[in-house]
Amino acid sequence: MKKWFTSWGWMVGVALLLAVPLGLHYLDRWAADACTRQGRALVNSKQYPQAIDQFNKAIQIDPKYAAAYHGRGVAYLDQGELDRAIADFGEAIRLDASDARFRYHRAIAHARKKELDHALADLAEAIHLNPTYAAAYLTRSWVYTEKGEAERAKADRQKAAELDPALEKAASGNP
């Protein structure tokens, strides 16, 4: 009986040693996610410096967490720090190229800098990733308007309104 316990003890010990690194990864992701959620709440409250601190903590915990870079980019975008926003959105895209929101927000930053061709490229990719992304169509319509491409702008405004009728009133504003 003692020998059976000893062999099981070794197996449990080895299993724990293997599980600890995996468990720490999940704890890190959980902690980074918690900081990111707090950062988003602070962005929504327009407390940008505090939000950026939370996103920085998330990135320090998990440097491969795309959502933290995206959140910090949104905070920078809302503060008008467009180059920093573009850099963070670019890192979020590098880490997770499948999220259309990352390209959409980078497009807004490019549009605000009057880098219209960059904005159009990001919006085209955002729409490719999510063909029902009404806000991307609406933003692209504003960029087309800035470029003097009225027919394309009109087509995108119509598509945005078709996808989300609530955006129809917003079609006269700018990103």
Q: Can you characterise this structure?
A:
The protein is mostly helical. It has two domains: 1-97, Serine Threonine Protein Phosphatase 5, Tetratricopeptide repeat, CATH 1.25.40; 101-175, Serine Threonine Protein Phosphatase 5, Tetratricopeptide repeat. The chain is 79% helix and 0% strand. The protein contains eight helices and no strands. The protein has helices spanning 2-44, 48-61, 66-79, 82-95, 100-112, 116-129, 134-146, 150-163. The longest helix is centred in the N-terminal third of the chain and has 43 residues, at 2-44. It starts with a helix and ends in a 12-residue tail after the last helix.
| SSE order | HHHHHHHH
Termini Cα gap: 73 Å
Largest sheet: none
Report Rg: 22 Å
| Domains, number | 2
Tell me the structural class.
Answer: mainly alpha
Q: Number of helix segments?
A: 8
CATH class of the largest domain: Mainly Alpha
Q: How large is the share of residues in beta strands?
A: under 5%
CATH fold topology of the largest domain = Serine Threonine Protein Phosphatase 5, Tetratricopeptide repeat
**What are the low-pLDDT stretches, counting only 5+ consecutive residues below 50?**
none
Question: How confident overall, as mean pLDDT?
Answer: 88
